[in-house]
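User: Show me a protein chain along with its predicted structure.
Assistant: Here is one chain, sequence first, then structure tokens.
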Amino acid sequence: MSDEARGALDIDQSKYDFRDPEVSVYRSVKGLTRETILDISAHKKEPAWMRNIRLRAYEVFLSKPMPRWGGDLSEMDFDAYTYYIKPTDKREDEWGDVPEDIRKTFDRLGVPEAERKFLAGVGAQYESEMVYHSIREDLAKKGVLFLDTESGLREYPELFRKYFGTLVPPEDNKFAALNTACWSGGSFIYVPKGVKLDIPLQAYFRINSENMGQFERTIIIADEGSDLHYIEGCTAPQYSTRSLHTGVIEIFVHKGAKVRYTTIQNWSHNIYNLVTQRAIAYENATMEWVDGNMGSRLTMKYPSIYLVGEGARGNVLSIAFATSGQHQDAGTKIIHKAPNTTSTILSKSISRGTGRTSYRGLLKVAKGATGVKASVKCDALMLSPESRSDTYPTMEIDEDQVSIAHEATVGKISDDQVFYLMSRGLSEQDATSMIVQGFIEPFAKQMPMEYAIELNRLIQLEMEGAVG
């Protein structure tokens, strides 16, 4: 494949890689100390029990070593980040009330237009806080809650406390502890029994400042028989120094409910993206992760599902694209703890230039979980001789009466395929792009049409002067 054709597959950052003058009504002192934690909690006027959870999590963070597996974290300096930036005094329910500079950012990203066309509700986070949150009136009348996480804590403290930190406690890992200590923003969602949302909810997360740490905390509760699709998008401009995104997502899928969580992340290449995402599915519930990772310097993210009720189903469909200077260390974990549970994992990865992709997964079947059916498939496509792809699958099967399948492939674009398409009148760029689009098609077809189009925009034929 020619250098011209390889260049056609670079990610176009021009829509996302812009920066605005920094705006804030408050910034914490750079670096992480006990006083930083107290400062965040005081600004949010939190109850004592939440402040104490933060302080305990901070001690856990200090006590845990840095991970020695996965990506290279040797250049991380926790004292270099600003851990809390409050961009505005309050969260708005109308786009027109959002401060103009911030509103223009989301206008450029197309968020208000998307809300008008095909979303049931939108949350927009800028730096450390949600600046906008809204839900369709008819859904609100049915009891659907779609709030920023701070509002969830303030307005529904008993429900919030029942779920917060129960799936991802601070002791889980060093970055979960960091998030629990510093969390700010994110979405708090509750869907009542039997309520089915016909169109998605969305949250969009934007880092604008240099050396910024963003730590949103999202909690989703789907009560019995409910149905929800939640979409998350993330971007940041390119700086020469590093920023940090450490989110935590906890999802509770009760009996007979269904949740799909779709992520399209296109962080700039100076971001460490270190995220903990976990869901629990009860009897006959269905949890689906649709996970797209297109940016960051390093991503370490492994969406997990605990199938704890009989008949529960878990599906993970992921794609990772790594260009030069990037490492996408992604994968998934599915834990079968109940009989007659099913799961499928389909992982697609593309590496180009010196980019590296890694699939790191765990499939576990507990003793007594009979009748389990599980399938794992990992496909890697390398576009350059210097590209790298690794697969680290782990299976722990403690029950005999199960059906488990695993398949993995690694390959490159065939010169014969390109030649064949070119013989039908396509340019080399068009032929190469068509092959890549076909490779990711199982991922794209699971997304709403507008988001499938957005995904395709991220893998375009032409660079438009953007750097990534």
